[in-house]
Amino acid sequence: MLNYDMPLYRPPSEGNNLIIQATLGCSYNQCSFCSMYHSKRYQERPFEMVANEIREAVSLWPKTRRVFLADGDALALPSEQLLAILLLLKSSFPQLTRVSCYATPINLLRKSAEELQQLQQAGLTLLYFGIESGSNLILKKITKGATQRGMVTALTKAQRCGFKVSATVVLGLGGTTHWQRHIDGTIELLNQAPVNYLSTLQLYLEESASETFRQRFGEPFIMQNDQAILQEQRRLLSGLEPPQATIFRSNHASNALALAGNLPKDRAMLLQQLEQAIEGERALRRTELRGL
Questions:
Q1: Residue 284 domain flag
Q2: pLDDT in tens, 117-136
Q3: CA torsion 71→73→77→83, rounded to 10°?
C-alpha cells in the first residue's frame, strides 16, 4: 500500500480512484472557512519520490483507469515537473483514461495557455475548482484570494485549453446578512463562466476554523439554518442560465438536501423537489449524518 501523508482529501467522485500525492498541503491555504491543510506545510514532492510511488501503484493496481493528483493544488507544480508525472502515469497504466486535480484561480491564471494545453494533452483532463462564492464582498470576507472577474477569466481559460471543470459553491457563506449578495454574485459568475459540473456544499465550520472565519468576516456572522439554505438553493437554481449544459449535484455529505439533474433541462424538476423540502414534504438529511 502507498504511504500517504495524512490527512488526505479528495473529491467524493474520486473515492474509488488511485490517489498520488504530487504535492503536500495547499500553496495558498488562506481560505478562512477551510481547515483541510492547517496541519501541513505546503511542499512540492520530489519527482523521484512521486515516480517511485507510481511504480509501486503499478504493481498493486495495474488496471488503474483514473488518477487523482493530491494534495490541495498539484497544479501549483512547475509545468515541467507536472508534465513528467503525467507522462509517467500514461506510460505506466495502459488503461488510464483520466487524471484530475484541484485547481485554484491563482494557479490557472499563473500558467500560460500553452502550458495548460500541454498538460491537458498529456492526460490531465479534469480540474476541480472551488468557486465558493461569486460575490466580491463574500470572497473578500472569506479571504479567498480571488475576485469574480479573475475566476471567470480562469474558468474560461481552462475551457479554451480543453479541460473539463467540476466547480463547487458553498451555500451559507454570506450568513443571514449577506446571503442574497452571495447567491446573486454566484449566479452572475456562473452565467459567464463555463463549467461542466456544478456542486453545492453547505457551510460547515470545523472548530479549528470557526474563530478565524468569524474574525476575518469583519462583522457578526449568524449561520443560516436549513430552511434558509433551501431558500439560497432555490434562488441559485432559479437564476442560473449557464453558457453550456451543466451537470448539477448537491449530494455532498454536508448538504441538507441531495439533488441531481442537468441544467437548464431539469431546472423545473429540481425546483419542485426544493419546494417539497421547503414545505416539509421531502425529508432532509439528518444532522448527525452530515459532514465534510
A1: no
A2: 999 999 999 999 999 999 99
A3: 90
Instruction: Give the number of other Cβ atoms within 10 Å of residue 231's Cβ.
Output: 18
Instruction: Give the other-Cβ count within 10 Å of 48's Cβ.
Output: 8
**CA distance to 70, 152, 273, per residue, from 99 (Å):** 11, 23, 34
What's the chain's average pLDDT? 95
Q: Is residue 292 predicted with pLDDT exceeding 80?
A: no
Residue 221: CATH number of its domain: 3.20.20.70
Q: 191-224 b/e with 16+ CB inside 10 Å = b?
A: ebbbbbbbbbbbbbbeeebbebbeebbeeebeeb
CB 138 within 8 A of CB 174: yes
**Number of folded domains in the chain?**
1
**Rg of the chain in Å (alpha carbons):** 19
Nearby residues of 60 by Cβ (< 8 Å), 6 or more positions away: 1, 2
Looking at residue 214, its pLDDT comes to: 96
Q: What is the mean pLDDT of residues 89-104?
A: 98
Residue 3 resides in a domain: no
Q: Please check whether residue 288 lies inside any domain of the structure.
A: no
pLDDT value, residue 105 = 95
As a whole number of angstroms, the distance between CA 175 and CA 242 comes to 25
Task: Please give the grid coordinates belonging to residue 13.
Answer: 467522485
Task: Check if the beta carbon of residue 195 is closer than 8 Å to that of residue 165.
Answer: yes
pLDDT at 1: 72
pLDDT category, 177, cuts 50, 70, 90? very high
Whether residue 148 contacts residue 189, with contact meaning beta carbons closer than 8 Å, is answered with yes
What 3-state class would DSSP assign to 86?
A: helix
Domain that holds residue 228: 12-278
Q: Is residue 285 part of a domain?
A: no
Q: Are 166 and 128 in contact (CB under 8 A)?
A: yes
* Under 8 Å between Cβ of 74 and 86: no
